């Protein structure tokens, strides 16, 4: 009976170790500090893009209230550009995260 318990215990330890090693990144690769900085920089850019969008929306609402059509067109153009930059920065962030995980 003691041998059976020892065998089952050893099998459990081996199974846990195999599961843990399978969950690690390939070849034990770790995310480097440079990769972490790059992702942080990308996230900071995303935050700044969102702030610019909020600012442009405020300006657009003010111009609509005042009825200034030239400024409305300009603000809409800036808003579209800010949205393009936000999408581009999101793609870049996702790409950097994927590369860091490899």
* Anisotropy-based shape: rod-shaped
Question: What number is the mean pLDDT?
Answer: 84
Terminal CA distance reads 46 Å
Total domain modules: 1
Structural class: mainly alpha
The value of Rg in angstroms is 26 Å
Q: Count the DSSP helices.
A: 3
Report the order of strands and helices. HHH
The overall strand count is 0
Question: Biggest sheet, in brief?
Answer: none
Range of strand content: under 5%
Stretches where pLDDT is under 50 for at least 5 consecutive residues are none
The portion of residues assigned to helices is over 70%
Question: What would you note in describing this structure?
Answer:
The chain has one domain (2-101). Helices cover 87% and strands 0% of the residues. It is built from three helices and no strands. Helix 2 runs antiparallel to helix 3 (69-101). The radius of gyration is 26 Å and the shape is rod-shaped.
Strand-helix topology:
Layout: H1 2-23, H2 33-66, H3 69-101
Helix pairs in contact: 2-3
In short:
The chain has helices spanning 2-23, 33-66, 69-101.
Properties at a glance:
102 residues, mainly alpha, 3 helices
């Amino acid at each position: 009976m003691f041998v059976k318990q020892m065998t089952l215990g050893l099998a459990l330890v081996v199974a846990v170790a195999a599961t843990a090693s399978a969950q690690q990144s390939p070849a034990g690769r770790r995310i480097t500090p440079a990769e972490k900085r790059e992702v942080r920089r990308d996230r900071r850019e995303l935050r700044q893009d969102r702030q610019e969008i909020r600012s442009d929306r405020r300006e657009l609402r003010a111009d609509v209230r005042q009825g200034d059509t030239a400024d409305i067109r300009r603000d809409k153009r800036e808003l579209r550009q800010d949205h393009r930059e936000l999408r581009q920065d999101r793609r870049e962030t996702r790409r950097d995260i994927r590369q860091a995980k490899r």
